[in-house]
């Protein structure tokens, strides 16, 4: 406890870090306040409680802004959709591939295209959102309400983007990820209180077991997020003038889950298609009715089987486009590094690709298990709001953002010669030596 208090004092003793933390809290407070500002022309007392299916997932990621029909009802999600589209374009379109290789200037152009693409996406999604609002909750439905709501929702999303950028520049952590995480975390107190109330005094032991399971699930996600396979790299001795630089031994850290949360996001977006298509044919076909029922229920084994397979496939796909063994091997060769026992060049590229293939399979299976764990928790009697924190997109985003934020705070402390946040020093897995020359 003394270590924790000392660390807090050290954090607030650094003026720059203290200012950034306060700025982050201020911007987060603005975002949470806007999440409760209801759209003009909507009666909040007549709104439906969207707690299941896609609406429940969106509402969890947006911290209740969706169900409140607030001006931030779509939040940052259209920007995330635009980012995914741009990432896919960098694979298929040569122009965007060229921009990606141009360094900082190319990234700025891609970010600008992402912002521009966000506008039509949020306008299209705002039409869908208006359709989900209970018509009884609309004070004066009509064309004016539709157009004004589209404008307000678009402005709200753009304002959330601006807040995210301000958090990145003036605060601590990645702003966009921080906004998503805050929306998720804001639901946790209500979810845990609701679970405790549902279990009551008679179910207090079961509630404690659920908390223990949640703890181990979080630890498992942290391990998956931090896990790396270190490939040793040796640098030959270099002679400079009269001095000789000894050979250096470093590592290439290949992450077990290099794809992060993207496979779950891609797979989740595809899982809505069968239910939507089946709903158009369910009146004329029993098979379509069966498919629509099973794929609308995320606790069914059919849904989770297909969901898990898609996550494994997308993990391999996203890892393949985000980690380039050929480029790593070429960078090593130019910098005079080599993997002991492996020839430089193509042999090194094949070796790295083989290692990456081997570690991606357990990472993909673990990611699939985490994704379907909320459904498993729901089947064991956990309430729907609380089960969302047992895995899936929500938990992985929370763990990733917290670890990245802690790593930034750790860097500030170590630069000012303070002890780190952990007894063992640096956060393992986040500050590995990278054996690639810039």
TrEMBL record:
Q: Where are the transmembrane segments?
A: 21-39, 71-93, 113-131, 143-163, 175-193, 205-228, 258-281, 301-319, 359-382, 388-406
Protein's membrane topology: Multi-pass membrane protein
Question: Which InterPro entries does the UniProt entry name for this protein?
Answer: SecY (IPR026593), SecY/SEC61-alpha (IPR002208), SecY_CS (IPR030659), SecY_dom_sf (IPR023201)
Q: Might you report a single GO cellular component term?
A: plasma membrane
Give the highest taxon in the source lineage.
Bacteria
Concerning Pfam families, the annotation shows: SecY
Q: Where in or outside the cell is it found? A: Cell membrane; Membrane
How does this protein assemble? Answer: Component of the Sec protein translocase complex. Heterotrimer consisting of SecY, SecE and SecG subunits. The heterotrimers can form oligomers, although 1 heterotrimer is thought to be able to translocate proteins. Interacts with the ribosome. Interacts with SecDF, and other proteins may be involved. Interacts with SecA.
Provide the family line: Belongs to the SecY/SEC61-alpha family.
Name of the protein in its database record:
Protein translocase subunit SecY
Source organism (scientific name): Hymenobacter oligotrophus
Q: What is the lineage of its organism?
A: Bacteria, Pseudomonadati, Bacteroidota, Cytophagia, Cytophagales
């Amino acid at each position: 406890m003394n270590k924790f208090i000392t660390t807090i004092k050290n954090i607030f003793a650094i003026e720059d870090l203290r200012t950034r933390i306060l700025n982050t809290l201020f911007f987060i407070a603005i975002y949470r306040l806007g999440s409760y500002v209801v759209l003009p022309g909507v009666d909040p007392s007549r709104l439906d409680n969207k707690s299941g299916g896609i609406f429940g997932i969106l509402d969890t990621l947006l911290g209740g802004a969706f169900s409140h029909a607030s001006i931030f009802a779509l939040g940052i999600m259209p920007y995330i959709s635009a980012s995914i589209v741009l990432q896919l374009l960098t694979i298929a379109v040569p122009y965007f591939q060229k921009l990606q290789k141009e360094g900082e200037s190319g990234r700025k152009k891609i970010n600008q295209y992402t912002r521009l693409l966000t506008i039509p996406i949020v306008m299209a999604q705002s039409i869908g959102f208006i359709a989900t609002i209970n018509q009884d909750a609309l004070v004066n439905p009509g064309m004016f309400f539709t157009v004004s709501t589209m404008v307000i929702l678009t402005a709200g999303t753009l304002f959330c983007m601006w807040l995210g950028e301000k958090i990145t520049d003036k605060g601590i952590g990645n702003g966009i990820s921080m906004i998503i995480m805050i929306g998720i975390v804001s639901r946790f107190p209500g979810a845990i209180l609701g679970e405790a109330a549902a279990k009551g005094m008679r179910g207090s032991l079961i509630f404690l077991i659920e908390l223990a399971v949640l703890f181990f699930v979080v630890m498992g996600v942290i391990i998956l997020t931090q896990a790396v396979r270190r490939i040793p790299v040796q640098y030959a001795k270099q002679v400079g003038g009269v001095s000789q630089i000894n050979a250096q031994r470093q590592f290439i850290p290949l992450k077990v889950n290099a794809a992060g949360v993207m496979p779950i996001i891609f797979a989740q977006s595809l899982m809505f298609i069968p239910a939507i298509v089946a709903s158009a044919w369910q009146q004329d076909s029993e098979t379509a009715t069966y498919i629509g029922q099973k794929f609308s229920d995320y606790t069914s084994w059919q849904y989770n089987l297909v969901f898990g397979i898609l996550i494994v496939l997308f993990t391999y796909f996203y890892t393949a486009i985000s980690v380039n063994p050929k480029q790593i091997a070429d960078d090593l060769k130019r910098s005079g590094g080599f993997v002991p026992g492996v020839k430089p060049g193509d042999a090194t590229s094949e070796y790295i690709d083989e290692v990456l293939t081997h570690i991606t399979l357990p990472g993909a299976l673990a990611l699939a298990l985490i994704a379907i764990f909320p459904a498993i928790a729901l089947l064991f009697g956990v309430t729907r709001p609380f089960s969302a924190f047992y895995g899936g997109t929500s938990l992985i985003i929370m763990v990733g953002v917290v670890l990245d934020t802690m790593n930034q705070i750790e860097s500030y402390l170590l630069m000012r010669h303070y002890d780190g946040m952990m007894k063992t020093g640096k956060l393992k897995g986040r500050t590995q030596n990278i054996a690639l020359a810039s």
